[in-house]
Design brief:
The chain is an alpha+beta fold. The chain is 29% helix and 31% strand. The chain has three helices and seven strands. The termini are far apart.
Length: 150
């Protein structure tokens, strides 16, 4: 028996193919662990409540005469803090966040001898990083954020 291919059958096959295509993406996004979805922060409600404090720290950093500067060197990344601060009074942390893989995220406390801080290249993987530098000098708090490609 021969099946005759007609235009209504073509429309049905096209719709069925499209539905299978879309449902395969829904299946992958929902059930396949390789395409895991995770939150940037597990405590996003708590982080949202502290957002105004973060805005204030960003404004404080924006009002500095010289900004924090991040540059690539052979050894890794150098973060230069403004020279207007006494380096011994700077306390805080530097957080590196990898948008594509949260397992690569790390945080380093700030210990300065001069106004430069070196992040060795062994800790960094090529790609895009979100850098968040949160520091304090005396009672004044500052925050610097930058997206960079290493």
């Amino acid at each position: 028996m021969k099946i005759k291919f007609t235009w209504p059958m073509g429309i049905v096959l096209a719709l069925a193919s499209f539905m299978i295509f879309i449902l395969s993406f829904v299946y992958k996004a929902t059930f396949v662990p390789k395409y895991g979805h995770h939150l940037v922060s597990e405590q996003y409600y708590k982080d949202e409540l502290n957002y105004q404090k973060e805005i204030d720290k960003l404004n404080s950093a924006a009002n500095l005469k010289i900004d924090v500067f991040i540059s690539h060197v052979d050894e890794g990344l150098i973060i230069k803090f403004p020279s207007e601060f006494d380096t011994k009074k700077i306390k805080g942390s530097i957080k590196f966040q990898r948008p594509s893989n949260y397992k690569l995220d790390f945080q380093i406390p700030i210990y300065l001898i001069n106004n430069e801080f070196l992040i060795v290249k062994d800790k960094l993987v090529d790609g895009i990083w979100n850098v968040k530098i949160d520091w304090q000098v005396g009672d004044k708090k500052y925050l610097f954020k930058q997206n960079l490609r290493y």
